[in-house]
Model the fold of this input.
Amino acid sequence: MAPNRDQATSSREEPRPEARRGLGATADQLQTRATKLAVMRIQVVEHPLVAHKLTALRDRTTNSPTFRRLTEELVTLLAYEATREVRTEQVTISTPVAQAEGVRLAAPKPLVVPILRAGLGMLEGMVRLLPTAEVGFLGMLRNEETLEASTYAERLPDDVSGRQCFVLDPMLATGGTLAAAIRFLVHRGADHITAICLLAAPEGCARIESELADLHVPFTIVVAAMDDRLNERGYIVPGLGDAGDRLYGVAG
Ligand code: URA
Done:
Protein backbone atom coordinates (compact mmCIF):
# COMPACT_ATOMS: atom_id res chain seq x y z
CA MET A 1 0.00 0.00 0.00
CA ALA A 2 1.27 3.50 -0.77
CA PRO A 3 2.44 5.47 2.28
CA ASN A 4 0.17 8.28 3.33
CA ARG A 5 1.45 11.79 2.92
CA ASP A 6 2.77 12.24 6.45
CA GLN A 7 4.64 8.99 6.32
CA ALA A 8 6.00 9.89 2.93
CA THR A 9 7.30 13.30 3.95
CA SER A 10 9.20 11.93 6.94
CA SER A 11 10.63 8.96 5.07
CA ARG A 12 14.23 8.79 3.91
CA GLU A 13 13.82 5.62 1.90
CA GLU A 14 15.35 5.59 -1.54
CA PRO A 15 12.97 5.42 -4.50
CA ARG A 16 12.43 2.15 -6.33
CA PRO A 17 14.65 2.01 -9.47
CA GLU A 18 11.65 2.35 -11.77
CA ALA A 19 10.36 5.33 -9.79
CA ARG A 20 13.74 7.04 -10.21
CA ARG A 21 12.93 7.27 -13.90
CA GLY A 22 9.33 8.15 -13.28
CA LEU A 23 8.37 5.27 -15.55
CA GLY A 24 6.83 2.83 -13.15
CA ALA A 25 4.02 4.66 -11.38
CA THR A 26 1.24 2.45 -10.11
CA ALA A 27 -2.43 2.86 -10.95
CA ASP A 28 -3.03 4.91 -7.80
CA GLN A 29 -4.22 8.36 -8.77
CA LEU A 30 -1.51 10.30 -7.03
CA GLN A 31 1.34 9.11 -4.93
CA THR A 32 4.15 11.24 -3.74
CA ARG A 33 7.41 10.36 -2.16
CA ALA A 34 9.39 12.91 -0.28
CA THR A 35 12.64 12.97 1.53
CA LYS A 36 12.94 15.40 4.38
CA LEU A 37 16.38 16.75 5.15
CA ALA A 38 17.44 19.61 7.38
CA VAL A 39 16.35 22.41 5.04
CA MET A 40 15.73 20.64 1.76
CA ARG A 41 12.77 18.47 0.93
CA ILE A 42 12.63 16.59 -2.35
CA GLN A 43 9.29 15.44 -3.60
CA VAL A 44 9.10 13.06 -6.56
CA VAL A 45 5.60 13.14 -7.97
CA GLU A 46 4.50 9.68 -8.98
CA HIS A 47 1.46 9.73 -11.17
CA PRO A 48 0.68 7.81 -14.36
CA LEU A 49 0.12 10.98 -16.38
CA VAL A 50 3.38 12.48 -15.15
CA ALA A 51 5.22 9.29 -16.11
CA HIS A 52 3.50 9.17 -19.50
CA LYS A 53 4.32 12.76 -20.44
CA LEU A 54 7.85 12.48 -19.13
CA THR A 55 8.49 9.40 -21.24
CA ALA A 56 7.41 11.30 -24.36
CA LEU A 57 9.66 14.23 -23.35
CA ARG A 58 12.64 11.95 -23.00
CA ASP A 59 12.10 10.46 -26.44
CA ARG A 60 14.65 11.93 -28.84
CA THR A 61 12.13 11.81 -31.70
CA THR A 62 9.75 14.24 -29.93
CA ASN A 63 9.87 17.52 -31.86
CA SER A 64 10.07 21.02 -30.34
CA PRO A 65 6.37 21.99 -30.61
CA THR A 66 5.35 18.72 -28.94
CA PHE A 67 8.12 19.07 -26.38
CA ARG A 68 6.88 22.56 -25.44
CA ARG A 69 3.28 21.40 -25.10
CA LEU A 70 4.23 18.38 -23.01
CA THR A 71 6.44 20.52 -20.78
CA GLU A 72 3.54 22.87 -20.08
CA GLU A 73 1.20 20.00 -19.30
CA LEU A 74 3.73 18.30 -17.08
CA VAL A 75 4.44 21.51 -15.16
CA THR A 76 0.74 22.00 -14.52
CA LEU A 77 0.62 18.54 -12.95
CA LEU A 78 3.73 19.23 -10.87
CA ALA A 79 2.38 22.64 -9.90
CA TYR A 80 -0.70 21.01 -8.43
CA GLU A 81 1.57 19.21 -5.99
CA ALA A 82 3.95 22.14 -5.51
CA THR A 83 1.17 24.53 -4.51
CA ARG A 84 -0.27 22.28 -1.83
CA GLU A 85 0.87 24.78 0.82
CA VAL A 86 -0.03 27.95 -1.04
CA ARG A 87 -1.46 30.44 1.45
CA THR A 88 -5.18 31.07 1.43
CA GLU A 89 -7.58 33.16 3.47
CA GLN A 90 -11.16 32.54 4.47
CA VAL A 91 -13.90 34.31 2.53
CA THR A 92 -17.66 34.33 2.60
CA ILE A 93 -19.37 34.40 -0.78
CA SER A 94 -22.94 34.16 -1.98
CA THR A 95 -23.88 31.31 -4.27
CA PRO A 96 -27.14 31.68 -6.22
CA VAL A 97 -28.70 29.72 -3.36
CA ALA A 98 -27.05 30.71 -0.08
CA GLN A 99 -23.96 32.10 1.62
CA ALA A 100 -20.95 29.81 1.65
CA GLU A 101 -17.60 29.82 3.36
CA GLY A 102 -14.60 29.36 1.10
CA VAL A 103 -11.01 30.38 0.54
CA ARG A 104 -9.06 32.51 -1.89
CA LEU A 105 -5.35 32.98 -2.41
CA ALA A 106 -3.96 35.27 0.27
CA ALA A 107 -1.98 38.45 -0.36
CA PRO A 108 0.82 39.00 -1.16
CA LYS A 109 0.53 37.14 -4.44
CA PRO A 110 2.84 34.19 -5.06
CA LEU A 111 5.91 34.95 -7.14
CA VAL A 112 6.83 32.64 -10.02
CA VAL A 113 10.48 32.82 -11.08
CA PRO A 114 11.46 31.01 -14.28
CA ILE A 115 15.19 30.69 -14.73
CA LEU A 116 16.10 31.78 -18.24
CA ARG A 117 16.23 30.33 -20.76
CA ALA A 118 14.77 26.86 -20.31
CA GLY A 119 12.61 27.79 -17.29
CA LEU A 120 10.59 30.00 -19.63
CA GLY A 121 9.18 26.86 -21.23
CA MET A 122 7.63 25.99 -17.87
CA LEU A 123 5.97 29.35 -17.24
CA GLU A 124 2.74 28.84 -19.15
CA GLY A 125 2.03 25.54 -17.42
CA MET A 126 2.60 27.18 -14.03
CA VAL A 127 0.48 30.30 -14.51
CA ARG A 128 -2.32 28.19 -15.90
CA LEU A 129 -2.73 26.92 -12.36
CA LEU A 130 -1.77 30.17 -10.60
CA PRO A 131 -3.05 32.89 -12.94
CA THR A 132 -2.87 35.65 -10.33
CA ALA A 133 0.78 35.02 -9.50
CA GLU A 134 3.34 37.66 -10.38
CA VAL A 135 6.29 36.67 -12.50
CA GLY A 136 9.92 37.66 -11.99
CA PHE A 137 12.83 36.55 -14.14
CA LEU A 138 16.26 35.30 -13.28
CA GLY A 139 18.84 34.78 -16.01
CA MET A 140 21.50 32.28 -15.02
CA LEU A 141 24.18 30.80 -17.21
CA ARG A 142 26.10 27.64 -16.63
CA ASN A 143 29.74 27.79 -17.62
CA GLU A 144 30.13 24.56 -19.59
CA GLU A 145 33.74 24.11 -18.45
CA THR A 146 33.52 24.91 -14.74
CA LEU A 147 29.78 24.02 -14.53
CA GLU A 148 29.40 27.06 -12.20
CA ALA A 149 26.32 29.29 -12.48
CA SER A 150 26.35 33.07 -12.68
CA THR A 151 23.54 35.65 -12.87
CA TYR A 152 23.41 37.63 -16.12
CA ALA A 153 19.93 39.19 -15.76
CA GLU A 154 17.26 39.63 -13.15
CA ARG A 155 13.87 41.24 -12.96
CA LEU A 156 12.64 40.66 -9.43
CA PRO A 157 11.32 42.81 -6.60
CA ASP A 158 14.05 44.13 -4.27
CA ASP A 159 12.18 42.68 -1.33
CA VAL A 160 10.37 39.37 -1.63
CA SER A 161 9.84 38.78 2.08
CA GLY A 162 6.46 37.25 2.80
CA ARG A 163 6.09 36.06 -0.80
CA GLN A 164 5.80 32.40 -1.63
CA CYS A 165 8.33 31.87 -4.42
CA PHE A 166 8.10 29.16 -7.08
CA VAL A 167 11.30 28.71 -9.05
CA LEU A 168 11.07 27.01 -12.45
CA ASP A 169 14.13 25.20 -13.75
CA PRO A 170 13.64 22.06 -15.83
CA MET A 171 16.93 20.27 -15.16
CA LEU A 172 18.44 19.96 -11.70
CA ALA A 173 21.76 18.64 -12.96
CA THR A 174 24.90 19.79 -11.11
CA GLY A 175 22.67 21.88 -8.87
CA GLY A 176 24.78 25.03 -9.30
CA THR A 177 22.07 27.09 -11.02
CA LEU A 178 19.30 26.20 -8.64
CA ALA A 179 21.50 26.67 -5.57
CA ALA A 180 22.48 30.14 -6.84
CA ALA A 181 18.84 31.02 -7.58
CA ILE A 182 17.64 29.93 -4.14
CA ARG A 183 20.45 31.85 -2.44
CA PHE A 184 19.59 34.90 -4.54
CA LEU A 185 15.94 34.77 -3.42
CA VAL A 186 16.86 34.25 0.22
CA HIS A 187 19.10 37.32 0.06
CA ARG A 188 16.05 39.23 -1.19
CA GLY A 189 14.11 38.08 1.86
CA ALA A 190 12.37 34.90 0.67
CA ASP A 191 11.54 32.40 3.36
CA HIS A 192 9.21 30.08 1.44
CA ILE A 193 10.73 28.65 -1.72
CA THR A 194 9.56 25.76 -3.88
CA ALA A 195 11.48 24.75 -6.99
CA ILE A 196 9.76 22.82 -9.75
CA CYS A 197 12.00 20.71 -11.98
CA LEU A 198 11.29 18.10 -14.61
CA LEU A 199 14.30 15.94 -13.79
CA ALA A 200 16.91 15.84 -11.06
CA ALA A 201 20.22 14.06 -10.58
CA PRO A 202 21.25 12.77 -7.15
CA GLU A 203 24.61 14.58 -7.41
CA GLY A 204 22.87 17.93 -7.90
CA CYS A 205 20.53 17.35 -4.98
CA ALA A 206 23.46 16.49 -2.73
CA ARG A 207 25.31 19.61 -3.84
CA ILE A 208 22.34 21.87 -3.17
CA GLU A 209 21.85 20.35 0.23
CA SER A 210 25.45 20.92 1.26
CA GLU A 211 25.87 24.33 -0.44
CA LEU A 212 22.74 25.75 1.13
CA ALA A 213 23.08 24.14 4.54
CA ASP A 214 23.93 27.54 6.02
CA LEU A 215 20.73 29.21 4.80
CA HIS A 216 18.32 27.99 7.48
CA VAL A 217 15.46 28.63 5.07
CA PRO A 218 13.62 25.44 4.27
CA PHE A 219 12.83 24.82 0.63
CA THR A 220 11.15 22.11 -1.38
CA ILE A 221 12.09 20.68 -4.76
CA VAL A 222 9.23 19.08 -6.67
CA VAL A 223 10.37 16.89 -9.52
CA ALA A 224 8.82 14.45 -12.00
CA ALA A 225 11.65 11.93 -11.65
CA MET A 226 14.99 11.40 -9.95
CA ASP A 227 17.35 10.05 -12.60
CA ASP A 228 20.42 7.87 -12.21
CA ARG A 229 23.41 10.18 -12.44
CA LEU A 230 25.27 12.89 -14.33
CA ASN A 231 27.60 12.09 -17.18
CA GLU A 232 31.05 13.64 -17.61
CA ARG A 233 29.52 16.64 -19.42
CA GLY A 234 27.10 17.38 -16.60
CA TYR A 235 24.08 15.98 -18.44
CA ILE A 236 21.44 14.01 -16.60
CA VAL A 237 21.38 10.28 -17.46
CA PRO A 238 19.11 8.99 -18.91
CA GLY A 239 17.68 12.54 -18.95
CA LEU A 240 16.17 14.20 -21.98
CA GLY A 241 19.15 16.06 -23.42
CA ASP A 242 19.49 19.85 -23.39
CA ALA A 243 16.11 21.16 -22.27
CA GLY A 244 16.68 24.64 -23.75
CA ASP A 245 17.66 23.26 -27.13
CA ARG A 246 14.75 20.85 -27.20
CA LEU A 247 12.32 23.64 -26.28
CA TYR A 248 13.69 26.36 -28.51
CA GLY A 249 16.19 24.83 -30.92
CA VAL A 250 19.92 25.42 -30.80
CA ALA A 251 20.00 29.11 -31.83
CA GLY A 252 20.00 30.52 -28.27
N1 URA B 1 20.80 20.97 -18.61
C1 URA B 1 20.06 20.32 -19.54
O1 URA B 1 19.34 20.96 -20.31
N2 URA B 1 20.11 18.98 -19.59
C2 URA B 1 20.87 18.24 -18.76
O2 URA B 1 20.87 17.02 -18.85
C3 URA B 1 21.66 18.93 -17.80
C4 URA B 1 21.61 20.29 -17.75
In short: Residues 5-248 form a domain with the Rossmann fold fold (CATH 3.40.50.2020). The longest helix spans residues 64-82.
